[in-house]
Amino acid sequence: MNNEQVRAFTVSSHTHLAVALQKIDDNANGIVFVVDDDGRLCGAVSDGDIRRWILKAGSIDAEVESLMNRNPISVHSDQCVDSIQIMKKWSIRALPVIDSVGHIVDIYLAKSDHSIYAKEKQKVLADVSVVIMAGGKGTRLYPYTKILPKPLIPIGEVPIVERVMDGFYNFGISDFLMTVNYKKGMIKSYFAEARKDYHIEYVEEDKPLGTGGSIKLIKRTFDSPIFVANCDSLIRTNYQLLYQHHLQTNNAITIVTSLKNDTIPYGVVYSKENGELDHMDEKPTRSYLINTGMYIINPDMIKLIPDNTLFHMTHLVEKAKEMGYKVGMYPVSEDSFLDMGEFAEMKRMNKKLNIE
After folding, report:
1. Dihedral of CA 287/49/226/234: which sign?
2. Is the distance from CB of 24 to CB of 333 less than 8 angstroms?
3. Both 176 and 210 in a single domain?
4. Which of 61, 94, 114 is the last residue of a domain?
5. Are 74 and 218 in the same domain?
6. Are 28 and 126 in contact (CB under 8 A)?
7. Same structural domain for residues 39 and 160?
8. Which residues contact 315 (CB under 8 A, 6 or more apart)?
9. Are residues 132 and 88 in the same domain?
10. Where a domain ends, among 65, 89, 114?
11. Are both 238 and 220 inside the same structural domain?
12. What's the CATH code of the domain at 53?
């Protein structure tokens, strides 16, 4: 691994959390290593560390020094070691190699089958159901949606809704309920011919009922919490850990959130009294947690949705809060949330999925 590749895995102790998380996304190994002012290894921060920090109400503007593991696993360059066995033992995907003074000179990487996503093959969520919201017209993607319903717009050669469902299927989920309205016949025909291994039950709207109102049309009951997801947004995360978080926190509703970084394209000016300049911040970046549109809800939440009424999931969240139910959130990184709602985001999705 050359110096440039090593730099892809390192940040300074003063790096802001949002920047570190972006670097974790870029290196695709779930971790960055922290170096001090002299370039010596002094810590490590994983995507899980950042998630736990945010869930404890830690500031997303914090520096990595506030949450890093100060005793990262490493090996010395003059050691002869079995790096794979070390990474398996400690359940890590990247192992830094340091010289005699603590500088990182190399990083051993685990093979892809050692990643958290290997758990996908275990079918761990086989008893869970997913409601896919697919009834909207997708007006922001006109004129594509004049011909095709939004769920069937292809990303590469695969419709976006199929990619969404395949993501759940990789974790063992095979029970899908799809709310449909606009061009519903085309959606049904596609999946009738696709012959997928999962089961789809269609919930038909006669009029737009919103992302929450259509759920009330479902005739059957559920024994366990269900996912609610949009047909045009991919959330690339470990659904097993997400579901476990919902159960362990005793949430009635869990909102999946994503870090969003916005850069102001101007210098921001701060002043003292009487207009005297204090300081300037050139093109600063602000970080926020945004609603991705994916939720996990307990079955009794469906009873709070009014019949035959336009009602969105955000209305359900507000109603649950007013009635004293616990509503929580689960953060994912910015690059884990791919939304196809607009053309610019559609291009970003293709790029992130390595589709030409």
Report:
1. positive
2. yes
3. yes
4. 114
5. no
6. no
7. no
8. 210, 212
9. no
10. 114
11. yes
12. 3.10.580.10
Q: Whole-angstrom Cα distance, residue 183 to residue 146?
A: 10
Q: How many domains does the chain have?
A: 2
Q: What is the pLDDT along the chain (356 residues), one digit of tens a residue?
A: 778 889 999 999 999 888 898 888 888 788 999 999 999 999 999 988 998 898 887 788 899 999 999 999 999 998 888 888 998 888 888 999 999 999 999 999 987 543 444 444 457 899 999 999 988 776 666 666 667 788 888 888 888 999 999 999 999 999 999 999 888 899 999 998 888 889 999 999 888 888 899 999 999 999 999 999 999 889 999 999 999 999 999 999 999 999 888 888 899 999 988 888 989 999 888 888 999 999 999 999 999 999 999 999 999 999 999 999 999 999 998 888 988 765 566 666 666 676 65
Cβ 95 vs Cβ 75: under 8 Å: yes
Structure tokens at 215: 């759920």
Domain that holds residue 174: 118-352
- pTM (2 d.p.): 0.80
340 and 234 in a single domain? The answer is yes
Shared domain for 346 and 332, answered yes or no, is yes
CA–CA separation, 199 and 173 (whole Å): 10
243 and 297 share one domain: yes
- Strand-strand pairing, 327-332 and 285-297: unpaired
| Single-letter amino acid, residue 331 | P
CATH, residue 135: 3.90.550.10
